[in-house]
């Protein structure tokens, strides 16, 4: 767990602080020597004058009002974030398992806070009016609250072992998830240079993608890699920014003048205002996503694009068996290939008006099967084999809002 606290996590401390101040004020009042006039009224010395070590009533009232405003306990406000990949899913699972017990505990805290505020309000009012009578009833109620606080702070029988077990289980899950994370000791820049091609080759390869985004600014490039497409868009006067999880790639793209940041692509996209983007692009990204993350990405992109905006996703093409022998399994971070028919289906189902599939990156001619004798039947069969074995290595889905 990341230790993030909810806005109400300091409520017990505030309550204890207020309790201590009130107890001291009551003790000061009881210890004070009250002087009575003929009518039996005590002097201000009972609750303390400015020269006595008494409570500053105005400050006490302010603390009470702060407590009253913030005495709002809700299980949905308990943080469930985690720095560990998969940690949030583990938190949600545990929250579901203990939600009933958690809500019961919050209900007890809310009841206690409500009663405490009523009683404390009466005590503060008494201090403000410098009452000299014995506040036996308030004393009794305050003692009862202190007793209930002490009981609440003691773990219920059998709860503490369960909490220890849950904490250990969460730590085990987070450790297991951490062990699955891929943390290469080589530079991703070197990997890109070796297996994807030079920057010059990528600039030439994605010029047509950049052209499709004319008039679609602003553009968000999710997982921009070395930033070639961001450079092409800037050259065409299209405002664009990128997000990438690799800090080294971000530094290199920023050094070339790109507007980039380190971050999670889906989270960054989700933080944009609805209908605020003209384009969302993901070049060689979707094959890295789980099926659920892909679903969420397409749906969120649809919400964030304005009418006429474009979602462009390029990925490896599983229609070509050539891909599996040459490119897909070279990258250890690939999750699974995504069939173009499925990606087209997702875009149509979420509501995109027009969806186009652009098959790209054909293998070199010398790698394809050549006709033997020119017979039509043999040539037709070879064409089928070439399409299956040596079809285009990538495809792009262009979906227009």
Produce a short descriptive summary.
By secondary structure, this protein is of the alpha/beta class. The protein has helices at about 10-30, 55-70, 85-130, 135-155, 160-180, 190-195, 200-205, 205-210, 230-235, 245-255, 265-270, 290-305, 320-325, 340-350, 375-390, and strands spanning about 220, 240-245, 260, 275-285, 305-315, 355-360, 395-400.
Report on the structure:
The protein has 401 residues and is of the alpha/beta class. It is built from 15 helices and 7 strands. The chain has helices spanning 11-31, 57-70, 87-128, 136-153, 159-180, 188-195, 199-205, 207-212, 228-235, 247-255, 265-271, 291-304, 321-326, 340-350, 376-389, and strands at residues 219-222, 240-244, 260-262, 277-283, 305-316, 354-360, 394-400. The chain has a 7-stranded mixed β-sheet, with helices on both faces. Helix 12 (291-304) links the parallel strand 4 (277-283) and strand 5. Helix 1 (11-31) runs parallel beside helix 3 (87-128) and helix 2 (57-70) runs antiparallel to helix 3. The protein is elongated and about 110 Å long. The protein starts with 10 loop residues before the first helix and ends with a strand.
